[in-house]
Amino acid sequence: MSGRSSDRKKTTCSKTTTIIGPMLLLLFATSAAFAIKVPRGMDTCPSLKVCLQLLDAVVPATDDGEGSNSEVLARDLSRFGDAAKHELLNRATGNQPGWRNVAGAILSDWPTWDPSDVPALRKALQMNPGGWLARPLGRIATPEAIQVLVEDLPRGEENQTDFALSHLGARAIPYLFPLLKNDLSAASAARVISAMDPVPLSYASGWVTIALDPHKDRDERIAALRGLAALGPNAKPASAELRKLLGAPEASLRRETGIALHAVRDPSVIVELAKECRPKAEAHDSIAIDAVVCLRDVADFGIDGRDAGPYLLQFLGSANGAEQAYGILALGLIGYDEASTKIEGALKSPDWRIVNAAVWSLGWLGDGNATSQLDAIASSYWLPEVGQNAKRSADAIRSPTGHLDIAEWRLRENGVPRDPFWFVSDGIPGKNLECTSNHWRWKDLSFKLSRPNGRASSLRFRKEPMFGELVGTDNGEWGGQLAWLPYKGQSEILLRDNVAGMDYASDGDIGAVVYSGLAHMSFNFGYVLKVSLDSGGTWNQSEIARLPGEPVAWSTITAGLFAVEANNRVVVFSTREGILGLASCAADK
Fold this sequence. Notes:
alpha+beta, Leucine-rich Repeat Variant, globular
């Protein structure tokens, strides 16, 4: 994603998402780079030779992709005019990788360029595809300069060439269109077109005409369809006629038409899309990635996705709480009010994620029958933000409009745009806990929280039917597990997820309370399981508390009553009744 904004690095993170079991590992490949150093005296060095000698002392031997401070260095060196520019171009094509990068970065901010520089820039870009010197070519913007950029584009993923071409906007389209004909280069061209701002919509109607013309070459028609897909929802008004091609005799045209109609969010494809959405996550999978990817896609159709409603109802019966929450949100966002009664039932769920999803969804649907339940949640729900959302929905339903604005399906959280699915995996953070005494109070009971030592925990059992040891591991983003190691017999893995800690159930049952979860990058989720072994040798597992984030400290208050800190809140729960409320900090003693 390099060069897409003011980012000064040549290489940045890729959008790669991987699932391992219930754990989402979002791993970004980033450059461990530091800013280009600006030597003392660069602004006053008397000659180009002296200035370059100063830089020689700080330029790294390797190409680290760094471009920070290039504006400062370009300002300091540009006073030497074309002589400096040509010397930097020489270094940008030289044998020293570090200087190639630094020279390219400086030249990317060089103030003056003209068409005669295109051959030298082309040579430099050929040596460093997608590199800094794409930017000057974008500023020169002659047909020759644009063609050099287009030649460079298919060589890599998102980079400075993308940046230059996308900023050229509609002027680059005639040069990019031929790339859309080729399966190997089409994705790169479409990526650039989709990044253009403003969107080059002037081409939409022409591309529809080309796609529909049976006398046009097949590759040209496919290129037109790919261009429309790259334009995205903005091209929807011009694209309705493409539905005719869903019955085209050529399989390739049918396929690309379906892709284009999907990309522009045409309702003709929503049912087939919805049929591919099915609940499949395991019970304690806190991400349910397949569901969120599919349901977010459906929800992005807005009310044009309403026909997907009957197919999404199955998510309300999922054994996985994340899938239920995602399904409820999607049903509200597509305006499927036939689901209102079932969504009302979700307000009674012990899982706050499901309740919060139902609160939002009923507000979007304008369900007047739900206002009394929303009022009750607003006045007494244990998680304050869910109560606030319930009040917002109830107030909107009673307002003249009768519902929350369904068009605004991308909300703002602390000033940052976020879609409504975020809280399921991100949790809801509270304010920073300030309780220096670590004395907490629940009603008339006081307690202290204990924090884990290390990444493993265990409990020993020596009472029928449990003779053995429960062992839990927490390996952060790499996942963990809960295993039963009997003194006799075969060991068994009960849970494949991080185990932050455990405690004895202490409620009369022989079993354990297990704290599980993860806080990593944008994800923060947690839950509490109760596990026990029955007389027949079968393990029973039940989720007794869905937390607002990863558990980091806990305490047994009394038999069967526990407290756990998660996402800056101390949640009190019972093995019999689930979450009871939030503890408060007691005065220092």
